[in-house]
Design goal:
mainly alpha
Amino acid sequence: MNCVDRRDVGLLLLRLGTGGVLAAHGTQKLFGWFGGGGIEGTGQFMESVGYCPGKASALASGLTETGGGVLLALGLATPAAGAAAAGGMAGAAAVHLPNGFFAQGGGYEYAATLGLTAAGLAISGPGRLSVDALFGQAVNREWMVPAAFAVTGAVTALVIGARNKRLRRTSEGQQEALFEE
């Protein structure tokens, strides 16, 4: 058995921080904790930004963030957890994309950072200070990384594509004024 090194400690810190933030955001959506809207309020928001049906979208987003976050923090099923969290953050980034990059202007910076960190953890693995390591990497096999990203990528593309199509349909026929009055 190899001894724990600073890479393992670094991965543990990344997992705990990223997983904790994701789980907290997910519980806002699911339970209304930490000032969140719960399923009802989050569902209304989801509908307003084009994710329909709103309640189902809120539930899916909340479960992805909470479940992915908890699993990342534990270092359990790391490829699936990281890929799922990255997919959820891609959906969040799509909402903020029109506002530019920086979060202070409502941009996608925060969602992109969480998503890229989750993806990096899915690829790098959880390290030796993890439940995956404790269970002999039973749900952290090499083939699981591309499989998790393939499934997540396909689902994410379908969900964001449907949202974008819905937004285009609602904006059709709404022409802006040519001249200011």
